[in-house]
Write a structure and sequence with these properties.
This protein is α/β, with parallel strands linked by helices and about 325 residues long. It has helices at about 15-30, 55-65, 80, 85-105, 140-160, 185-195, 215-225, 250-255, 270-275, 285-290, 300-310; strands at about 5-10, 35, 50, 70-75, 110-115, 115, 165, 165-170, 170-175, 200, 210-215, 240, 245, 265. Bound molecules: (3R)-3-hydroxy-L-norvaline. Belongs to the NAD(P)-dependent epimerase/dehydratase family.
């Protein structure tokens, strides 16, 4: 552990942020990992502060006051919600990144992590085993903002030497935080609804295959790319990250091994158009070759781990690895 490392996580209360905060605190210690989000009074979270990622002056003040050496920018408006308010999505997703990149340049931060997404691809991208380099015609504000953000990351690396690293994350499945505004949320919500009601209304067609990843694998990938020597990072836009690919009907069949009576009704809504525009599976050989990425959870192992986590309904904490569920699954 490098005692000079001070990490600031922006968006620490979100689906990725909650688990990344605990994982980084296990490595660096709570006092070296500042958790922040837009919410006030999170007195339940040690070493937490309320930060608006669009308040550049306050963010720069916090970085200087606390000697921050790394920023993980996780705050974003996801694909489905972004379609409801394009300007808000573009402003949040883009301005927060530019603000962080400028602070990283001016304060000479060691590293920045910023998640991109498979949402940068569109209907003219290769559908299966989608390569790192192919047409990217995103058809959502979220995807457009993520693709633009990738170019900004590369620009700040090339022009100013900012060591910003990024991954095109697939849909993420985790037990520890509610999912909000995404198109892949069904893959989390189905677990909660199956447990509570043995019934789930799925907003995607049963055969819609999408790239997915269990959160523990995603957290491992983020930590791995951020700890890799700079010379191993050959892609300064964002690396494709794959893992598992499945459709709602595949996941429902897996869950029925635990809850045999689960009934799923498929009622595609506006999110079907978004899902149709994305690849079904990813070629992430670049990440595997350059810095040793390899996923560990297949769909069966993910489902088993989810049910293990869902058994222990404790109050969420950002200080212990999240073997817990959120208290009120209705919040999903
Ligand atoms: C979303 N969970 O659904 C995000 C993700 C690939 C999907 O970027 O918008």
């Amino acid at each position: 552990m490098n005692n000079k490392t001070i990490i600031l996580i922006l968006g620490a209360c979100g689906q990725i942020g909650r688990e990344l905060t605990v994982a980084l605190r296990e490595i660096h210690g709570t006092s070296h990992v500042i958790a922040s989000d837009r919410y006030a009074n999170r007195t339940d979270v040690p070493n937490y502060m309320q930060i608006d990622v669009l308040d550049g002056e306050r963010l720069k003040h916090v970085v200087k006051q606390h000697g921050v050496t790394q920023i993980y920018l996780l705050a974003a408006m996801l694909s489905a919600k972004g379609e409801q308010d394009a300007n808000a999505a573009w402003n949040l997703n883009m301005q927060s990144l530019i603000t962080v990149l400028n602070i990283a340049r001016d304060e000479k931060l060691d590293k920045v992590f910023w998640p991109s997404s498979i949402a940068v691809f569109g209907p003219r991208s290769l559908k299966f085993n989608c390569p790192q380099e192919t047409r990217t015609d995103p058809e959502t504000v979220y995807g457009i903002s993520k693709r633009a953000g990738e170019y900004w990351c590369n620009y700040y690396y090339e022009k100013y030497g900012v060591d910003v690293r990024s991954l095109r994350l697939p849909g993420l499945i985790s037990a520890s935080a509610p999912t909000g505004g995404g198109t892949t949320n069904y893959a989390v919500n189905i677990f909660h609804e199956a447990i509570k009601h043995q019934y789930f209304e799925c907003y995607l067609e049963e055969s819609t295959v999408l790239p997915m990843l269990y959160m523990k694998d995603a957290i491992r990938a983020i930590i791995k790319i951020m700890s890799a020597p700079s010379e191993k990072i050959k892609v300064r836009t964002a690396y494709n990250l794959g893992g598992i690919s499945f459709a709602p009907c595949d996941l429902a069949a897996e869950i029925r091994k635990y809850i045999p009576d689960l009934k799923v009704v498929y009622q595609p809504d506006h999110r079907q158009v978004i899902a149709n525009s994305w690849p079904a599976s990813m070629d992430d050989s670049g990440a595997r070759n350059d810095w040793g990425w390899a996923h560990e959870y297949n769909m069966a192992a993910m489902a088993s781990a989810m049910f293990e986590s869902l058994k222990a309904i404790k109050k969420p904490s950002l200080d212990h690895y999240p073997e817990f569920l959120i208290e009120d699954v209705a919040a999903i």
